[in-house]
Write a structure and sequence with these properties.
Strand content of chain A: 5-15%
Radius of gyration of chain A: 24 Å
Helix content of chain A: 40-55%
Largest sheet of chain B: 2 strands, antiparallel
Strand order of the largest sheet of chain A: 3-10-6-11
Number of helices of chain A: 18
Structural class of chain A: alpha+beta
Largest interface: A-B, 68 and 49 residues
Order of helices and strands of chain A: HEHEHEHHHEEEEHHHHHEHEEHHEHHHH
Radius of gyration of chain B: 26 Å
Strand order of the largest sheet of chain B: 1-2
Shape of chain A: globular
Strand content of chain B: under 5%
Oligomer: heterodimer
Number of strands of chain A: 11
Number of helices of chain B: 14
Chain lengths: 451, 310
């Protein structure tokens, strides 16, 4: 006769065995071995064709396409209609993913079930996906594509660097959002401040335009607003600080991927950034990109630097907000951060040929480029970018520093590197550490991470 | 008499034994529920435990044993230790304030006319039905130096602060705990009010006849009698506060610097941003042990209290 205790013990035992069995089912090497470095997945040689793609059974194919919510998803909804008209047997199933959780949702899916055929991959975590073999290389597709359908030479090198790993290409740049200066034209005119062309001028202008109009001891208008949220990736302090760091001559890694974040140039850049923060709302130490937009659109900020993709939001402000190129640093140049999204194919996709047709269409087709331009973001394709730059001065300003942009190193642990930097920059803004101390500590921690 | 009583006792014991020995359907009836509970609660915990002792990545699965290395890493990880300290401060601040304010308001409401109480209660419950993320964004505006009602209120009573509460390392955790207090004190009020309403009136009448003061009534009668409700409120709020994520994520993202990075926020970063699932599992196991110890202590307290009452 079984007692309840015995039954429970048995069930527990079965569960433990099941847990071990399940873990054993994973494609793992022998337990004592070190994990072998993951080799990116090879794909079969594709068929270069623009002809309709069919599944082996001749049925229509449905592609699961992951896109970021709002503007990008709206653009792809329109692009998908044209695409489906051109390829009637391929249906696009658009899956919207919120920006805030895009990395975790994509990673879990790509590493697990792999339900996506294509994904919109951000420059910040592309290297992680590629190094773990989650994305398919596209070189064979690119080589065999007809020039009229896809031409890789029409993409800037700084963007292609963000999708190239060990000599292979794992994505096609879809858009780019370089940084530029936004300013309230009425305020600058009223206080007789010229549009800053250098970072020193920006600091002076921010100082002059931090105004306490009602004399209550607290500024009503701040000279600038920083994005101080201490997170890695887009929308946080590291990405906001990058163009300042680069335009001072500083880098996170040198050409040999050795960390150089505590160089004298980087320390000076952080000293400058700390000084600039004095003329930014104190709570901006917690502001992400979205939170910084609200006071700026509301007229409480005079000048700010940010990515070009925030323009569609600011355009509706009741204040006359204009744009200018990002101010030049002490090295006499503006060097920007080429934040961008690329389109990649999941290594687990069972419709890679169709997925490539969509990838090339969404990143290269003229009709798609026009949709992006209308919705207010800059395509990754150089000729389309130049076209938009000619017709839209807002984007001409943003594009003015792109040729010398510094691409992120293709490093799987780069998200951790940025996280360390974010905490240290935040500590400097709070006055807990000096720029030198913070960057020395960051250097030591980054060296440990990349070991 | 003694004999009869003794026979009865023997009879009952034998009946019990017979009942246990019979093929009872209870096991079959409880089986599915127990199986589901084991599958959705116990299995993930065991699997998490396995991962925490392994080298694991989501894309490759387990690739070897790490033994205690993740636990050793956690113990010396300054950010993890900082997150424990942040969580402790948050939990203590929130709990103390919620219990004091909750008890005070519950006592007032207990003595208030029922019609007035019925009008007040729905308003009191409002914060509880709001999403914590919405509450977080709302309070972020309220704490703003430029247009926040919180700073404005402080100014009107003559308190000038140089930095907004969320922008200072010294105040950010307490400012966040205050949001938790605003949202969840109503729950404490409801639990304690339920307890107070169920207290027997005779005990109070006897105390008044004996000449007990209001303070003595509160100290020696009310508080001991609602100890169970106090422990339940403490337990529920403590469990929530120890795993706080949403309010902090919406308001500060764990910043400025790491000054409001709770254990859950750090765990989220480790697992989803750094994709170190194995190390994250070790942290989660440590959090589980911590929560378990505290819960066991409080449940024991509750059980002892009930035994005393019986």
């Amino acid at each position: 006769m079984f007692t309840y205790k015995k039954v429970l013990q048995m069930m527990l035992g079965i569960l433990i065995i099941f847990a071990f069995l399940l873990s054993g089912c994973q494609p793992a090497p022998t337990p004592t071995q070190e994990p072998a470095p993951v080799q990116p997945v090879e794909t079969q040689a594709p068929q270069a064709t623009t002809a309709p793609v069919e599944s082996p059974s001749g049925e229509a194919i449905t592609l699961n396409v992951g896109a970021i919510s709002f503007v990008a998803a709206e653009a792809w909804r329109q692009v998908a209609k044209d695409f489906e008209a051109k390829y009637p047997n391929i249906k696009i199933n658009l899956i919207e993913i919120p920006w805030e959780t895009i990395q975790e949702q994509q990673y879990v899916d790509l590493a697990g079930q792999g339900s996506y055929d294509t994904v919109m991959v951000n420059v910040a975590y592309g290297p992680l996906y590629i190094s773990e073999g989650l994305l398919a290389p596209l070189d064979d597709y690119i080589k065999s594509a007809a020039k009229s359908d896809f031409d890789l030479t029409d993409f800037p090198k700084s963007l292609l660097d963000t999708v190239t790993y060990q000599g292979k290409i794992y994505g096609v740049p879809m858009d780019v959002f370089p940084q530029q200066l936004y300013y309230r034209d009425d305020l600058l005119k009223e206080y007789n401040v010229a549009v800053p062309e250098t970072l020193d001028q920006l600091l002076e202008a921010a100082k002059k335009l931090t105004l306490d109009t009602n004399n209550d001891g607290t500024p009503d208008i701040y000279g600038t607003v920083i994005q101080g949220l201490p997170i890695s990736g887009g929308g946080g302090v590291v990405w906001h600080f990058y163009p300042y760091l680069f335009s001072y001559g500083g880098r996170v890694f040198d050409e040999n991927n050795k960390p150089v974040v505590n160089s004298p140039e980087a320390v000076k850049a952080l000293e400058y950034y700390k000084e600039l923060f004095k003329y930014s709302p104190p709570e901006s130490v917690n502001y992400g990109c979205d939170q910084s937009l609200e006071p700026f659109a509301g007229g409480r900020i005079a000048l700010a630097t940010s990515d070009s993709d925030i323009w569609p939001v600011l355009i509706n402000s009741k204040f006359p907000i204009k744009t200018a190129p990002f101010p030049k640093g002490p090295i006499g140049k503006r060097i920007l951060w080429p934040g961008n999204f690329s389109v990649s194919i999941s290594a687990k996709s069972t419709h890679k040929d169709a997925a490539w047709l969509w990838t090339s269409y969404a990143t290269f087709n003229n009709a798609a480029m026009q949709v992006y331009g209308k919705l207010g973001f800059i395509p990754g394709r150089a000729s389309a970018m130049a076209e938009i730059g000619k017709t839209n001065p807002v984007f001409a300003n943003a594009l003015s520093g792109l040729q010398e942009a510094v691409s992120p190193p293709m490093m799987p642990t780069y998200s951790q590197v940025e996280d360390v930097l974010a905490k240290k920059i935040s500590s400097v803004l709070l006055g807990e550490l000096t720029p030198q101390e913070a960057l020395d500590q960051a250097q030591a921690e980054i060296e440990k991470i990349i070991q | 008499m003694t004999n009869t009583y003794g026979n009865n006792q023997i009879q009952i014991r034998e009946t019990n034994r017979d009942w246990k020995n019979q093929r009872s359907p209870i096991g079959f009836l409880l089986g599915p529920t127990v199986a589901i509970l084991l599958a959705i609660n116990l299995f993930p915990i065991i699997y998490e435990l396995v991962i925490s002792f392994s080298k694991y990545r989501l894309s490759t699965g387990i690739t070897g044993f790490a033994w205690f290395s993740h636990y050793a890493e956690a113990i010396v990880d300054k950010r993890f230790l900082n997150s424990i300290w942040v969580t402790t401060r948050f939990t203590l601040t929130a709990l103390i304030l919620e219990l004091i304010i909750g008890l005070t308001i519950a006592l007032i409401l207990d003595r208030t006319d029922m019609r007035i109480r019925n009008v007040i209660l729905p308003f009191l419950v409002l914060p509880m039905v709001m999403s914590p993320v919405v509450v977080g964004y709302m309070w972020q505006f309220m704490y703003s130096q430029e247009y926040g009602v919180f700073i404005y209120f402080l100014k009107t009573i003559g308190i000038h602060i140089s930095k907004p509460p969320l922008a200072s390392v010294d105040t950010v955790v307490y400012a966040l705990a205050l949001v938790d207090v605003w949202q969840w004190t109503p729950l404490v009020i409801l639990i304690l009010l339920g307890g107070l309403q169920a207290l027997p009136i005779e005990v109070y009448e006897a105390a008044i006849v004996d000449g007990a003061t209001q303070t003595n009534v509160l100290r020696y009668i009310t508080l001991p009698l609602i100890k169970s409700e106090l422990v339940i409120a403490l337990l529920l709020r403590m469990l929530d506060a120890l795993k706080v994520f949403d309010i902090i994520f919406a308001m500060t993202g764990g910043g400025p610097s790491s000054s409001s990075e709770s254990i859950s926020i750090y765990l989220y970063r480790v697992v989803f941003k750094f994709v170190k699932m194995d190390y994250g599992a070790a942290i989660a196991v440590l959090l589980l042990i911590l929560v378990n110890i505290i819960t066991r202590y409080l449940v024991n307290l509750l059980t002892l209290q009930q035994e005393e009452v019986v």
